[in-house]
Design goal:
This protein is α/β, with parallel strands linked by helices and 306 residues long. The protein is built from 12 helices and 11 strands. This is LysR family transcriptional regulator.
Length: 306
């Protein structure tokens, strides 16, 4: 048994899926399955019940999970302990940030960190919400600023911001004399988005919203192809939804023949939350990051809800 086997076990236990755990660990499913079988052989007991489309922990797996997590947390904390003992070496915090996190939230977080903990050097990792959450669970990130809702166990979140959502649509498709638009006016234009795997909870909610308003045409681009999204919207071949703040998607259309309009009679929004691993809260670095996050929101929102 080694740390690789323990990390593999914890990933499967937290994801409840060999496929998602393999993506989180950036390996194929077959070597991951072999690692788990090696671990089960060494312990002499099955750790998972493998059912169709679902994986559950056995009694032995339930006993192992908190102990494996504690071992990994201690190992992961060694770097900070050594840097502290070395005296004066900056602590690095790896912080994921999703596309529609506003500059207001980003800059307030960085300014608060610089003021309260100047010995912490943040490194921002931009990506979509779901890949960031996978890296957070895998321990590659210390904190993530992502778009909620966030599902799954073992992750603590704190509400930071809610941005109203508007429509980005080509000027030729709607004209340039409108100050707002109803979704019912867009039923003949496809809704375009990046791959829904980038933020499945967010896109699941959006899909239901659009269907209820009679919008059934969809164009889904591969990966995080925001440039392709801009081309489709600017040429009138599709519309998309964006935060009305100064997020990345809004800046993407700057200089294009695109109108960004509020939606009539609807209060759709994009929620931004800070997320971290609950079991790492006792680490000094994570505690310091969470302290800064807590200073960004009113106390009444401190439990993750607006």
């Amino acid at each position: 048994m080694d740390l690789i086997h323990l990390r593999s076990f914890v990933a499967v236990a937290e994801e409840r899926s060999f496929t998602r755990a393999a993506a989180r660990l950036h390996i194929a499913a077959s070597p991951l399955s072999r690692r788990i079988k090696d671990l089960e052989r060494e312990f002499g007991a099955p750790l998972f019940v493998r059912a169709h489309h679902r994986v559950e922990l056995t009694a032995a797996g339930e006993v192992l999970l908190p102990r494996a997590g504690e071992i990994l947390d201690r190992v992961d904390a060694l770097g900070d302990a050594i840097r502290t003992a070395d005296g004066g070496a900056p602590r690095q915090a790896v912080v994921g940030i999703a596309p529609e996190v506003s500059p207001t939230v980003r800059d307030a977080f960085l300014a608060g960190l610089a003021e309260c903990h100047p010995d912490v050097a943040p490194r921002l990792v931009p990506a979509s919400t779901e890949p960031l959450l996978r890296d957070l669970r895998a321990g590659h990130l210390d904190l993530a600023l992502v778009h909620g809702p966030v599902g799954g166990s073992g992750i603590t979140t704190r509400f930071l911001e809610r941005q109203p959502v508007g429509v980005a649509v080509g000027t030729d498709a709607v004209g340039d004399d409108r100050s707002s638009i109803a979704l019912a006016d867009l039923t003949e234009i496809p809704f375009a988005s990046i791959n829904h795997d980038s933020a499945p909870e967010l896109y699941r909610n959006l899909d239901g919203l659009l269907t209820r308003h009679g919008i059934r045409k969809r164009i889904t681009l591969t990966g995080d192809n925001f440039a392709g999204l801009a081309h489709l919207v600017a040429t009138g071949q599709a519309f998309t939804l964006v935060g009305l703040g100064n997020g990345m998607a809004t800046r993407l259309f700057h200089g294009e023949p695109v109108r960004i309009l509020p939606i009539d009679g609807m209060r759709a929004s994009i929620t931004t939350v800070a997320a971290w691993q609950a079991r790492r809260e006792t680490e000094q670095l994570i505690g310091d990051l969470v302290e800064v996050v807590g200073s960004l929101v009113p106390p009444r929102r401190a439990n993750g809800g607006p």
